[in-house]
Amino acid sequence: MKLPVLFKEKMQRLLGDEYEAYLESYNNPKYQGIRINTMKVSDEEWKQINPFTELQPVPWCKEGYYYTEPNKPSKHPYYFAGLYYMQEPSAMAPGAYVPIKEGDKVLDLCAAPGGKTTQVLAKLNQTGVLISNDISASRTQALLKNVENFGARNTIITNETPERLASKLPGYFDKILIDAPCSGEGMFRKDEGAIKSWETHGVEHCQALQREILEYAYAMLKEEGMILYSTCTFSPEENEGMIQEFLNHHPLCEVVPLTPVGGIATGHPEWTKGGDASLKGALRLWPHHLQGEGHFVCLIQKKEPTLDLAKRQVIKKRIKDIPALSEFIETYTHIDRDTPVIEVKDKVFMAIEDAPDLQGLRIVRSGMLLGELKSKRFEPAHAPVLAYSKEMFKQTIDLAVDDVNVIKYLKGETLLVEAPKGYHVICVEGHPLGFVKSNNGTLKNQYPPHWRMMG
Question: What is this structure's pTM?
Answer without folding.
Answer: 0.97
